Amino acid sequence: MTKGGVAMRIFVLMAALAGMLASPAAAEKLDPRDMLVASSPAKDSIVAEGIETIALTFAEPAEVISVTVRLPDDTEVNAEPETPYLRRKQKQVRYRLPVPLEEAGGYTISYLLTSKSFKSLNGFVEFEIAGDPGSTVPGPPSAPGPQERD
């Protein structure tokens, strides 16, 4: 091998080594099931009273696109951010429901988000409000209304 050939091989080897050192190591991909760290109401929980807000905590900052709740009668309601904000990535979000959830039965929270690890991720949290399906959780007694007199 000529002196020029050895020098060329060393140059190519050094360039390849420099390229490997300069590029960041591949980040470990987050499993979709690990993205949701906590929620309120909690996954698979049984709650005894109505729900007015939903809190979701993620493993990494995420931009939440939408949050909906499927009700026991299979209808859906959209939840709105508790405090209006510009779209930005956050680790914890809170959403307000248009009306408190009081009907007994099974509910499913569905959320759609984007993050560093996910271009699009749709997640679900199932929970239940205790009681007989179709009934509502008893609230405080209402004051008597106007009565008709003879």
Question: Outline, from the CA principal axes?
Answer: elongated
Unreliable runs: 19-26, 137-150
- Sheet with most strands: 8 strands, mixed
Tell me what portion of residues adopts beta-strand conformation: 35-45%
Helical fraction: 10-25%
Strand tally, please? Answer: 8
CATH domain class name of the domain at 32-129? Mainly Beta
Characterization of the model:
The protein is mostly beta strands. The protein has a domain at 32-129: Sandwich (Immunoglobulin-like), CATH 2.60.40.1220. The protein contains 1 helix and 8 strands. Strands 1, 2, 3, 4, 5, 6, 7 and 8 form an 8-stranded mixed β-sheet that branches. It is elongated, with a radius of gyration of 27 Å.
Any chance you could write out the topology, listing elements then pairs?
Blueprint (H helix, E strand, L loop, with lengths): L2 H20 L13 E5 L5 E2 L3 E20 L5 E3 L1 E2 L8 E12 L3 E11 L5 E9 L21
Parallel strand pairs: 2-8
Antiparallel strand pairs: 1-3, 3-4, 3-6, 3-7, 5-6, 7-8
Organism: Erythrobacter ramosus
GO cellular component, one term: periplasmic space
GO molecular function: copper ion binding
Brief summary of the model shown:
One of its GO terms (biological process) is response to copper ion. Helix content is 13%, strand content 43%.
